[in-house]
């Protein structure tokens, strides 16, 4: 695996290789298999970034489960400095009474997760558990108790790969790469 890569105009260094990701994802699946044994959880992935995490995680889930997706886009509204979120693809399934496991690629400020959790909770799931592959503790603006599983805590630096993009590029990389500043 390359240690240094260039994507568009920026350089990135390898931060987490494919082997480490695989081991961590399998460990999370193992915990979920124990926690949700005998239940039929519904996995909800946040597109686009979660697609690889979802694919690798659910391959290791042994309890019968359903898989669905939602999509949110964050954008700066006008001259405001706060993030606004737009739901681009509403969740098409009824989650009332379901054990919902929300999968997110990365939690940075926590704004996206907070928005999604508030929305999902209004639909009365039996339970709501969040798994974030990556989390930047230094950037978190909220305490989100629903976040029970985190793959890796990382520095507050921009990363790409394993689903995450820079200018829509790099999602296909099988490792996670950190921006060289
Ligand atoms: P939030 O600040 O709401 O927690 O994160 C918003 C979204 O920004 C994340 O879901 C993710 O799509 C994107 N994001 C946050 N940090 C990074 C990063 O380091 N790299 C990439 N590619 N996307 C990020
Ligand atoms: Mg995301
Ligand atoms: Mg992005």
Automatic annotation (TrEMBL):
CDD domains named among the record's database cross-references: PRTases_typeI (cd06223)
Domain of life: Bacteria
Ranges in coiled-coil conformation: none
InterPro entries: HGPRT (IPR050408), Hxn_phspho_trans (IPR005904), PRTase-like (IPR029057), PRTase_dom (IPR000836)
Cellular compartments annotated: Cytoplasm
Entry keywords, A to Z: Cytoplasm, Glycosyltransferase, Magnesium, Metal-binding, Nucleotide-binding, Purine salvage, Transferase
GO cellular component: cytosol
EC number of this enzyme: 2.4.2.8
Catalytic activity annotation: GMP + diphosphate = guanine + 5-phospho-alpha-D-ribose 1-diphosphate; IMP + diphosphate = hypoxanthine + 5-phospho-alpha-D-ribose 1-diphosphate
Pathway stated in the Swiss-Prot or TrEMBL entry: Purine metabolism; IMP biosynthesis via salvage pathway; IMP from hypoxanthine: step 1/1
Enzyme class (EC, first level): transferase
Main localization, broad class: cytoplasm
Cofactor requirements of the protein: Mg(2+)
GO molecular function annotation: guanine phosphoribosyltransferase activity; hypoxanthine phosphoribosyltransferase activity; magnesium ion binding; nucleotide binding
Gene Ontology biological process terms in this record: GMP salvage; guanine salvage; hypoxanthine metabolic process; IMP salvage; purine ribonucleoside salvage
Family: Belongs to the purine/pyrimidine phosphoribosyltransferase family.
Protein name per the record: Hypoxanthine phosphoribosyltransferase
Organism the protein comes from: Mucilaginibacter auburnensis
Upper classification of the organism: Bacteria, Pseudomonadati, Bacteroidota, Sphingobacteriia, Sphingobacteriales
